[in-house]
Every structure is written in structure tokens, then in C-alpha cells.
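Appendix C reproduces, verbatim, an entry submitted by the partner laboratory led by Prof. M.T., so that reviewers can inspect both the input and the predicted structure.
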Amino acid sequence: MNVILLSFLFAGLTIIFYLFLNSLYVKYRWTLLTPVLTTTTALIIFLLLFDIPYGQYMLGGKWIGSLLGPAVVALAVPLYKQRDLLIQNLWPVTLGVTAGAFVGMLSGLLLAKIFRFSEELILTVLPKSLTSPVAMQLAEGFGGISSLAAVFVMVAGFSGVIFGSWLMKLLGIDSSIGRGIGLGSSAHGLGTAMAFEYGPKDGSMSSVAMTLCAVVGSFLGPALVWLFF
């Protein structure tokens, strides 16, 4: 089949899946119906059922992926609008993000050790709470597997989105700053998308947390590797 036609076909299929599954999420507001999670699952099942190679799907999927960069840059708009809030709460944000990055990396490392993962796999799990590009670079630098690090990042993002709202309700966290920092530092991009559902302040704080976590994690990661290996 023509490459251009395949590109449009798979890009369109991804969009249709997302729009349909997002409508279900909007209607029922059940965390497990988060569209990124359900769309990913639906696409995997579709490719397996029809025996479609991943490389063939990516002829169109890559066009969706290319929008990630502009989407991340677009986070600067609400961040700029909420700059006064950020300045007023600079210390709580900084301390919260640092604590979030530290706990996220240390918990992954300790759990991996408890389950007796190989050293290579532990070093791959370590940066799971950071955004994919940073996590992949750090994992490779530590001696881990960069491609597998991206998978752990997705798992961390999905689990943060699924359990994040429930935990915040349980702990009585109802401030925009608390929700934003919690979701951004634990579930990065997926958490930021959910934070915007609470409001622009939450989303802005989450985007700050996601960015700062990548910076803080770049320093914490090597320190933890030095301490434990």
C-alpha cells in the first residue's frame, strides 16, 4: 500500500481512537479511562489482532509524536499567566519538587533492589519519574537500557495518573500548588494533562514541577548511583 496512504490511515486511526475514548472519559470521569492509557491499549490490541508491524504503524504514528515538542512548549503559556503565583510560592514549589524527585528515584531504586533486579535493570528504573528524553539519557549514562527506561517512565506516568487523584483525596490535598506539584513530579506529562483538568493554576504548577524534576533528577541520579553502586 502507498506509504502516504498508510501514513494518513494510521494517523487518522490514532486520532479516531483518542477522540472516541476521550469522550468516554469525559462522560464517566473514571481514572482508568484516561484517554492516553486507553488509546495506547486499544492501539496495541489493534496492531496485534491484525498482525501490523510497529514500524508500519509509525509511518503515521510519527506525525502524532512530532506534535509532542510543540505541546510541551505550549505549556509555557499558562505558566507565564500564572508567573505571579509561582514567584509567591517559590520555596514551597522548589522544596516540593526536590522532595518529589528524590522520593521518586529512591523508591524505584529500593524496590528494584528488593525484587533483586540486575544492576543494569536497576539503573534503568532509577530515572523513571523524569520525562522520557531526560530519563533515557540518564539511564544510558548510568549503564542502563535507554529504550526500556522510556517504558518505565510510561508505567510511572500511568500509575501516577490512576492513583494520584485518589491519594490526594485520601490525604486531603486540595490546593492548586499541592495537586500540581504532586502530579507533575510523579507523573510528568500525563500528570500535567490531568492537572489542567483541575484548573490552570494546577496545570501551571505541574508543568513547573515536571521541568524542575528533570533538572533536579539530573543531579540526584548520579549522586544515588554513587551512593548505592
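The longest helix spans residues 200-228. Additional entries are available on request from the coordinating office.
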